[in-house]
Amino acid sequence: MKTTELHHHSRRYYNQLSLDIDHLNLECEFNNVDHRTELNGVDRLIVRRGQPFTISVYLRSGSYQPGVSSLDCVAETGPQPSEQYGTKASFALSANIDTSCWSASVTGPPGDMVVLSICSSPNAPIGRYTLTLGRSVRTEFILLFNPWCPGDAVYMDNEQSLAEYILAQDGIIFRGSYKHPIPTAWNFGQFEHGILDICLRILDMNPKCLRNPGKDYSGRRNAVYVSRVLSAMVNCNDDKGVLLGRWTTDYEGGVSPLYWRGSVEILRNWDQQACQPVRYGQCWVFAAVACTVSRALGIPCRIVTNYLSAHDTNNNLVIERYVNEEGELMKSKEMIWNYHCWVESWMTRPDLKPDFNGWQASDPTPQEKSEDVYCCGPIPVKAIKEGELTFKYDASFVFAEVNADVLTYMKKKDGSTSNVTSATLVGQKISTKSVGSDAREDITHIYKYPEGSDEEREAFKRADHQNKLLHQKEDLGLLLSIKVTSDMKKGCDFDVFAVVTNNTEHEKHCRLVFGSCAMSYSGVLGGNCGFKDLLNVRLSPGAGESVPLTLNYSKYGGQLTEDSLIRLAALLLDYSTGEAKLAVRNIVLDDPQIKVRILGEPKENRKLAAEITLQNPLPEPLEDCCFSIEGSNLTGGRVITESDPIQYNSAKVKIYFTPTHSGLRKLVVDFDSNKLCHVKGYRNVIIGK
């Protein structure tokens, strides 16, 4: 009897202290705006870690009394919540919010409605949470990384940078060639309807989560871990990842990577197809999808283009290339891509020395395995610059992409090989979109020291890059280069030039082979576009000669790949010494410009029209012309298409759309036809309220 009375008394005492909750108002609109997540919608609570959010608690009975009332709170994420793994947090009311850990405090006046402020730990795992208040009141919310919070590993102390690398829903990817970078607009769409849920599903479908969900959910507190998971999951080589890569011209069962204008359609297709891979992607598509997911989850992210990017398969920092006696490149596993795209994510690296925080490179394009998985990074960009190749993850592979030495050999018809002198560059004009503008920012200096500098030599020593350390200066006796003009437009005939100069004191008698062929951006060669073989080139001491090669549309037009690239190669053989020199240059042919004219005053929630025109530059008609447009907060998360069957001079359509939010937006346009494939364009549109 005594025990029963004691139990009854303690229960009565608990009821007196514990708040008796009737219902909650999560104040989604207020909180989402405060946490900069309102573009995801305001119908549910989406907050960032380490920053308080406020909910209204309506009491069934009694009122809140400071110092007397109590409330037990439990926040849980994942299928096996555990305080040990950081996926479960239990906390009670305190006098003030503590932003360094999970905490709760009443911030409103006493009464039957309580204003409750809750803050998550800045190190909490991101994802879906269940919040339990008291004994039985449960609600749900989503927690994201918080680059505005100084305690978060992804903290970035610059509002303009955050506007670009977290909040910007569109951007620019640089393609083309290092002599002629071409900006391509991309719709990231990280705040479009349903995209955040798809991003969280990507995390849930990763093999680490399927094997051990408790450990994986715990790992989601760590931006390094999440970035590495995304690097693996954006490709599908080992898992139920998003994209299947294809680097041939056969896109059966899918679409050309150039078809895509943004990430939204790709992510929705993956989600709706039960996590079957979307066909097909190439490097800029993989990087763009990874950028979308990173920004959606709250990790500052940008796309980087490395021109003349080396793919080193055997980890020796050397690319060995072979040409035949006509200067034609022979097949090899090791390639130099005309350009290659990856992403950089901003975060601290507590697992490394303190000087290696900041931008971390990771690459979702499946090239080589890392720890038995097709992923790459994250590796501090500074580690690449300093030659610190023992740092995690995949430092040597990324270092080779921007620094590999290139050795060229000629394979002769009799089976013998000889050295070829070739001034082939790697890692040129490393580029990203500038903050707040569409201009190209050259970031080569954050990956490499100036060529020939003492700092570069020290970095090569640390990396044990013996080939670069032993490099001899180029022989300046016979010089060979390739020059081009500015009128290299698709559909036109034009000349390119091999320029030979004799800087020796002797007359030189040489053979010059000058050829051209179509090429994909990844370095795969196609058909012949023009060829010249001069067996009797004589040069007096100090003399030079410019040898033209005419490229006719009638010949190159049928050979071009979608990348519109032609590889020019000049091979010079010195009869007196037997030495060979090779000059290579990749040229990209300009597509016609897509012109976009906005009709009417752009305002949110008002129907708008765009007149889109493309002049046909070819000496033949275009058939099956189709324009496609999309844009975040412009086209309602959809791709809008309009066709124009056959056009001799120009193709023109009018497309209607209704913007949903004010601000500066990109209308991304794709034009496709039988002869001009996936021409890209865009127009910046300022939407008024």
UniProtKB/TrEMBL annotation:
UniProt EC number: 2.3.2.13, 3.5.1.44
Q: Does the keyword Hydrolase apply?
A: yes
Name a Pfam family for this protein: Transglut_C
Looking at the record, the residues that make up the Transglutaminase-like domain are 275-366
Active site per UniProt = 283, 340, 363
| UniProt key word Amino-acid biosynthesis | no
Record GO cellular component, one term: cytosol
Where along this sequence does the record place binding of Ca(2+)?
Answer: 403, 405, 451, 456
Record's keyword terms, sorted? Acyltransferase, Calcium, Cell membrane, Chromosome, Cytoplasm, Extracellular matrix, GTP-binding, Hydrolase, Membrane, Metal-binding, Mitochondrion, Nucleotide-binding, Nucleus, Protease, Secreted, Transferase
Which BP terms does GO give this entry? nervous system development; proteolysis
User: What GO MF annotations does this protein's record show?
Assistant: GTP binding; metal ion binding; peptidase activity; protein-glutamine gamma-glutamyltransferase activity; protein-glutamine glutaminase activity
Give the catalytic activity.
Answer: L-glutaminyl-[protein] + H2O = L-glutamyl-[protein] + NH4(+); L-glutaminyl-[protein] + serotonin = 5-serotonyl-L-glutamyl-[protein] + NH4(+); L-glutaminyl-[protein] + histamine = 5-histaminyl-L-glutamyl-[protein] + NH4(+); L-glutaminyl-[protein] + L-lysyl-[protein] = [protein]-L-lysyl-N(6)-5-L-glutamyl-[protein] + NH4(+)
The record's comment on cofactor binding reads: Binds 1 Ca(2+) ion per subunit.
Cofactor dependence: Ca(2+)
Subcellular localization, per the record? Cell membrane; Chromosome; Cytoplasm, Cytosol; Mitochondrion
What the entry lists under InterPro entries is as follows: Ig-like_fold (IPR013783), Ig_E-set (IPR014756), Papain-like_cys_pep_sf (IPR038765), Transglutaminase (IPR050779), Transglutaminase-like (IPR002931), Transglutaminase-like_sf (IPR036985), Transglutaminase_animal (IPR023608), Transglutaminase_AS (IPR013808)
Could you say which protein family the record assigns here?
A: Belongs to the transglutaminase superfamily. Transglutaminase family.
Question: What is this protein called in UniProt?
Answer: Protein-glutamine gamma-glutamyltransferase 2
Naturally occurring in which organism (per UniProt): Nothobranchius furzeri (Turquoise killifish)
Q: Which gene encodes it?
A: TGM2
